[in-house]
Amino acid sequence: MQKNIPNIVITPSTYQKGENFPVLYLLHGAYGNYTNWISKVPKLQQYVDRYQMMIVCPDGNPFSWYFDSPVDSTFRYETYISKELVEQIDKKYHTITSNKGRAITGLSMGGHGAFYLAFKHPDIFGAAGSMSGGMNLEKFTNNWHIAERLGDYKKYPENWKKNTIINMVHLIKGKTISLIFDCGIDDFFYEVNKELHQKLLENKIPHDYSERPGKHNWNYWQNSLIYHLVFFNGYFQKQGDSSK
Fold first, then answer.
1. ∠ at Cα 108 (94, 80), nearest 5°?
2. pTM, two decimal places
C-alpha cells in the first residue's frame, strides 16, 4: 500500500535466541487501531509470559475490515497481514514459521478479519478465533464504512456475498484448522454468530463456540480473550507434541 504501518509486538520475558515462539495475531475492531488491545488489556504482557507465546497487534485502519478491497486498490489489508506482516515477523523474531505456530483472533471487525484471513489462508494460520465478530456483513450494508471497502450493496452484491464469513465456510471444508468464537447474548452481532455456529454444525466443521451474558464492549472482550488464550495455548502445545 506504499505506506508505513505501525504494529505492537509483545515478546515473553524469556525471549532469547535459541528458542522459537508461537505467535498470536490480535486484531482490533472498527474505530480502533493497533494500540487498543495493550491499552485496554495491560495484562497482555502477563499472558505472553504465562503462555510463552508472542502477541502481535497489527494496525488494520479504523475501517479496513481486513480486506483487499475490490473497489479501492489503496486498501490491501489482507495482503498486508497474511503476507507482508507475517513474513517480517518471522524474519525479525524467533518464531515458529508454519501454521502450527500461528493463530489469529480479534474483536468485532477484527473477529471478522481473523476468520476471513484464516479461512482464506489456512496454510498461514492454523488456528483462528473471533470475539463478537461481524459474521454476516450482508445484514449490515449501511454500517461501519463497509460499503467503502466492498462497494455499494445494490451495485456490487457479489462482492458482499463472497467476502462475508457466513458464505466462506466452504473454503475450510476438509481443511485442518482449529476455530473458537463467541459472542455476548446482548450483542448486535449475536444472531449472526449463532447463524455461523449452525452452518459449521451443518457442514460438520469442528469448532468451539460459546455465548455468555455480555454486550459489545471491552468488559466482554477482556474476559473473552482469556478463553481464546487457553484455546490457542492448547493448540500450540498439541502441535509441539505432535512434532516431537
1. 45
2. 0.96
Q: Left (φ > 0), alpha (ψ -120 to 50) or beta: where does 66 sit?
A: left
pLDDT tens digits, 139-177:
999 999 999 999 999 999 999 999 999 999 999 999 999
Q: Mind listing the domains of the chain with CATH numbers?
A: 7-242 (3.40.50.1820)
Q: Please give the biggest Cα pair distance in the chain.
A: 54
Asked if residue 178 has pLDDT above 60, the reply is yes
Which residue type is seen at 244?
K
**β partners of residue 25:** 56, 104
Each residue of 229-242: pLDDT tens digit? 999 999 999 997 65
Strands 208-212 and 102-106: unpaired
Which residue stretches of the chain are H helix? 36-40, 44-51, 77-79, 86-92, 109-120, 146-150, 157-162, 190-202, 218-242
What's the 3-state SS for 207-232? CEEEEECCCCCHHHHHHHHHHHHHHH
